[in-house]
Specification:
318 residues; 10 helices
Length: 318
């Protein structure tokens, strides 16, 4: 499939700490729906903020599933603080995607290539991160970059991720429980979609095809070296999750077996066992608030911005 990339700065949308944020439209047809909730548009874009000082690295922040880049920017301040410290910020229009992740990686690599050539940012100083599916894409990119170093444009310096589900076998079991509970309409509908998709993609459940689920997961509990997590044994990782038991029980009729943190703690522990001393998990309690003001632990608000920025700065100073 032919893909053309022609990047034009359309306009600056805002000013943060004196730094202009610009929207870059990409001539790259979105035939794989890696960006949704934009009506019938097949246009892709990214926002960027370029420091006025010397650039020490690049920070790539990915939206969660279905979240627009504009809504993401309303919920965080990490980009504002990072650019002030000399970090170039990129926010790509990826909020959905493919099972293989090839389309997402191809789009990211086009952006990375443009940024490296134009601003002379070192390929060795890219930090990737995101909420939920944004975290999944970031971690999967890192694993694939290490597994197949010649196929992707760069290997990230580090990854941060918020409340990302990591183990597809565990998540499949959650989907079964969510469908059976049928308490939250949104939750049950999502669970049905995911379960049906994986049944079709892998041929059935993880009990029937365990190796397929291990191959597709970022981390697999009980598998040797955590499955694909072994590729992250030297990668700096910072994970965030929120344990809000009252919300789980009262708002969704869920319990700790349904909590994404169970995967996150498991993977960080496995990475530490393998010698990764820069792998950590930050567990907050009751910090999750959505853009509309509703309580939900699956939110950007669970991230301590100063903590994340300091972690990023420490990596870039190495």
């Amino acid at each position: 499939m032919k893909k053309r990339l022609s990047m034009l700065i359309l306009f600056g949308i805002t000013f943060c700490y004196g730094q202009k944020m610009e929207k870059v439209t990409v001539d790259y047809l979105d035939t794989n729906d890696i960006y949704v909730n934009d009506e019938d548009s097949q246009s892709l874009h990214y926002y960027k903020m370029v420091p006025k000082t010397d650039i020490i690295g690049a920070l790539v922040i990915l939206p969660s599933g279905g979240e627009s880049t504009e809504d993401l920017l309303k919920q965080i301040t990490l980009h504002e603080l990072a650019v002030k410290k000399g970090i170039l910020v990129i926010i790509p229009s990826i909020n959905w995607g493919t099972d293989s992740r090839e389309a997402e990686f191809s789009f990211l690599d086009k952006i990375f290539d443009e940024v490296v050539r134009k601003y002379k940012v070192s390929k060795e100083n890219f930090i990737l991160g995101g909420l939920s599916s944004g975290g999944i894409i970031s971690l999967t990119y890192a694993e694939n970059a290490i597994k197949n170093p010649n196929k992707l444009f760069l290997t990230p310096k580090g990854i941060f991720a918020l409340d990302a589900p990591l183990d597809q076998a565990r998540f499949y079991k959650y989907c079964e429980r969510e469908i059976k509970r049928n308490f939250s309409e949104a939750g049950a509908s999502e669970a049905k979609w995911i379960k049906n998709n994986w049944d079709t993609l892998y041929g059935g459940s993880p009990d029937q095809f365990p190796e397929k689920y291990i191959d597709a997961s970022i981390f697999s509990y009980g598998a040797k070296d955590g499955g694909n997590a072994k590729y992250l044994k030297n990668m700096p990782i910072r994970m965030y999750t929120d344990l809000d038991v009252n919300w789980l029980i009262n708002e969704r009729h869920r319990d700790l077996y349904d909590w994404n943190g169970i995967d996150i703690v498991g993977m960080i522990n496995q990475l530490k066992i393998m010698g990764n001393n820069n792998a950590s998990v930050i567990i907050s309690q009751g910090k999750g608030v959505r853009l509309n003001g509703s309580k939900n632990p699956h939110s950007w608000s669970i991230m301590d911005t100063e903590d994340c920025l300091n972690w990023i700065l420490n990596l870039l100073k190495r």
